[in-house]
Design brief:
13 strands; binds S-adenosylmethionine; 270 residues; alpha/beta; 25% strand; Rossmann fold; seven-stranded mixed sheet; globular; 8 helices
């Protein structure tokens, strides 16, 4: 069954298409990949483990920096994103780095209609869940594309922080709901996480998903949870008061070691 994009998803697609040229310039990972390096953090490298010769499907791959980094680790990679501009940039980067990869332009909800086969690893990370309107369908799609015994891995910002804003005083205040609502949050021409100077022209919509929503979507799809971890640093500067810690990552120095900024999760299909 075809899965046409809803109106908020169409707006998000335009939003992501618009920002691609700025991200190709602003993402440090682009230069790192061209110089022979990787965009992956030691957390995900350690937790995913050896991918040599394994097939890996990357959901919401954006401009392909993580996908191509997994290719550099030896995986046979396929990246998927519904933004045509993202996929074009990813293909261009694959060509420039001479890394083998397949990139597919598709909404993940439509992926079973356009992609065949099953994978050893399904991977997704860094700012993906808030763009999804239906998390149970997401869980089913992950299960659909995993081989029996295959690994699902996600590294994502802790959803609790989506409920907060930083006030001018530097205080964090809960302004939005942590819990999911059918109506998405509407953002009109917000700033960009990778380029502080860039102001988005196209609006976007985001959905809140709790930790329990994420667990339940995967468990309902039949996956078995293997590991869940939380870490005290974030892969982008979410709030103005955050400061760099590990290269490319941020935290509040005054709260170091005290707050969970990301989570990672490993689940298996049996
Ligand atoms: C924050 S980016 C992911 C970031 C990526 N991990 C990186 O570091 O570059 C979110 C991506 O999700 C994609 N996306 C959003 N909704 C989608 C959907 N329904 N199907 C496929 N891709 C989607 C956007 O086009 C965008 O490229």
């Amino acid at each position: 069954m075809p899965n046409p994009l809803t109106q908020p998803e169409q707006a998000n697609q335009a939003h992501w298409d618009e920002v691609v040229p700025a991200h190709v310039q602003a993402y440090e990972a682009v230069a790192m990949l061209k110089a022979g390096g990787s965009a992956l953090d030691e957390i995900e490298l350690r937790e995913v483990g050896d991918v040599t010769g394994k097939t890996l499907l990357h959901l919401q791959c954006h401009i392909g920096t993580d996908t191509l980094s997994w290719a550099r680790q030896g995986a046979v990679v396929t990246g998927v994103d519904f933004s045509a501009a993202s996929i074009a940039a990813a293909r261009q980067l694959a060509e420039e780095t001479q890394l083998p990869a397949t990139f597919i332009e598709a909404s993940i909800y439509d992926l079973p209609n356009v992609l065949e086969g099953q994978f050893d690893v399904v991977y997704t990370s860094r700012g993906v869940l808030c763009w999804l309107r239906d998390l149970e369908a997401w869980g089913r799609i992950i299960a659909h594309f995993l081989k029996p015994g295959g690994l699902f891995y996600i590294m994502e910002s802790h959803p609790m922080w989506n409920a907060f804003e930083e006030l001018e005083s530097g205080e964090l205040k809960p302004l939005f709901s942590y819990f999911h609502t059918a109506e998405p949050l509407f953002w009109d021409a917000a700033g960009d996480y990778a380029d502080a100077m860039y102001q988005h022209q196209s609006p976007s919509y985001e959905w809140a998903w709790t930790i329990s929503d994420i667990f339940n979507a995967l468990l309902k799809a039949g996956l078995q949870l293997e590991a869940f971890n939380e870490y005290d640093r974030l892969f982008f500067k979410l709030f103005p008061g955050m400061e760099p810690c590990v290269k490319g990552w941020y935290h509040y120095p005054q709260h170091a070691g005290k707050l969970p900024w990301i989570f990672t999760l490993r689940a298996r299909k049996w």
